[in-house]
Amino acid sequence: MGFDPFAEFRMSGHAAIVTGGAQNIGAAIARSLAGAGAKVMIADLNGEKATQTAAEIAAETGADCRGMGCDVTKADEIDAVVRATAQAFGGISTLVNNVGWGARHEDPAHISDEDLVASYRLNTISAYRMSMACLPHLLKADNPTIANSGSFSSAVPAYDILAYGTAKSALNQMMVSLAHLLARKVRVNSILIGTVLTPGYAEAGIDEAMQERMLHPDTLTGRPGRPEDVANAMLWLCSPASGWVSGQTINVHGGGSVVRLFGR
To answer: Does the keyword Oxidoreductase feature in the UniProt annotation (predicted)?
Structure first.
């Protein structure tokens, strides 16, 4: 056989958890990992949707893909997912902390303490708790990897989603610190994701007019992202192909922009 340039992108023998993987970007990530040969557990607040998406991915890829409900803000549910994944797959080598959400605030000058704490709990603390719960299994695995779905809103002014951007900024700092804490043991990286149009935008209060403006973003590529754009980068970060990469934030946002797309 000839040289296979994609050999190190294969994930055969790996077992992954993808949080928030029932739909949108998370589902694309789960499909990409499964398509590369990994066993995948989709953990999502919507357990029924997680199971449905997992069944679709399993049928499409032939991989062992499963789903279960998990509220990542609750330690006991995190522990249950980690325990079920390790039992089903014989271990855990890959964790994708993809779950995250942030509402748009009509008046960013009046965000409650509760809003800030809730965003931090969902977007930051959950990733730390999930990482620590998986750590005993990761330390036994080959190519152990933690990869995180960050946000470009953590790197530019984002007053319209201030609570979310602030929590994602904290995720960036926390995860680069974890990369150093776990040096030579577990690789830890994050992706700063730009504008990827999904149904989740409507749920965050971004109306059709705003989404229409986002179809022509001020980016170097001139288009919004697709879930597959993020999934492709995530596959690289999780696979042995990125074995010399840790403690990094990878920008996947079409070239980015310093101009907020929503406006007041």
So the answer is: yes
Q: Are 100 and 122 in contact (CB under 8 A)?
A: yes
Residue 210, C-beta contacts closer than 8 angstroms, at least 6 positions apart? 201, 261, 262
Order of all β-strands in the sheet with 249-252:
65-69, 39-44, 15-19, 94-97, 145-151, 187-193, 249-252
Burial class (CB in 10 A: 0-12, 13-18, 19+), 167: buried
> Rounded CA gap, 263 and 218, in Å?
13
What's the whole-model pTM score? 0.91
Strand partners, 19: 43
Q: What share of the chain is helix, strand, coil (3-state, %, to 5)?
A: 45, 15, 40
Residues in contact with 145: Cβ distance below 8 Å, sequence separation at least 6, in sequence order? 93, 94, 95, 138, 186, 187, 188, 189, 237, 238
Give domain 12-252's CATH number out of 3.10.310.30, 3.40.50.720, 3.30.200.20, 1.10.1240.10.
Answer: 3.40.50.720
What is d(CA 74, CA 57) in angstroms, rounded to the nearest whole number? 27
Tens-digit pLDDT profile for residues 168-212 = 999 999 999 999 999 999 999 999 998 887 766 556 555 556 555
Active site residues: 164
Write phi, then psi, for 189 (nearest 5 degrees). Answer: -145, 165
